[in-house]
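Subject: Sanity check before I submit

Could someone independently write out the structure tokens for this chain? I want to compare against mine line by line before I put it in a report. The sequence has 276 residues.
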Amino acid sequence: MYQGSISVIFTTYNSVAWLEKVLWGFHYQTDNNFEVIVADDGSREETKEAIERFKKNTHLEVQHVWQPDDGFQKCRIMNKALKAAKGDYVLFTDGDCIPRNDFVAVHRKHAEEGFYLSGGYFKLPMDISKRINRADIETGRAFDSQWLLDNGLKKTHKISKLTARGWWAKFMNSVTPTNRTWNGHNASGWKKDLFDVNGFDESMQYGGQDCELGYRLRHNGIKAKQIRYSAICVHLDHARSYVNPEMLANSRLIKKNTLSNKLTFTENGLVKKQSS
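---
Independent answer below. Compare away.
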């Protein structure tokens, strides 16, 4: 099992209420050997103030990496955060995903040379997303299936993500038909492997930019392990007004090119191609 420090990276943009819930999720982790890097894609001053408040009330080391607002530029800010990461192992999630208290520990347990880890999330409706508070996160109620059902969650087969434990979670990881993709809300890997493929492709905005990174990792010989039923986070509901058809079309073309040509490297990532 990896014994060193982990860098946890997640993005945020003008969503202070959700950001604070996610930060408290990391405050209550059973594994404390990690730093948090908030990759801020151009938020207003309120986000900085919220992070500073949190830093005064936590044992965690927190970095706030910010860039000016230039529309949806997640890949760009993720690369900046990746450059700032101090750990040799990097765990990625999103600023709308609250981690269960064993989230970091599970990623650490399954970290293995030559692999990246692929996790999922459990989606919550807006009313429950708003209702969850710090106490619900601290006590674990926010991840308890019965508590969620009591508060209006509709019961579906997907709730097994929250109830699977031990050998059953291991079994479910092995039989799930879901592909072992690099998911921005729940994935981790070795920093050196991410640098080898030049990080995130900044030519992409919304639409599979995380999966595209995973394609390049796979093409470069890095395999994937499924931890969908082991590393648990709950996804807070929100709108996606920043998405437009042009973004999606561009992302589809880049992903198709990466897959078709089995690319292992992007020219527009951590290091930019020098113009002649």
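---
OP: Matches mine. For the report I'm noting this point. Residues 6-260 form a domain with the Spore Coat Polysaccharide Biosynthesis Protein SpsA; Chain A fold (CATH 3.90.550.10).
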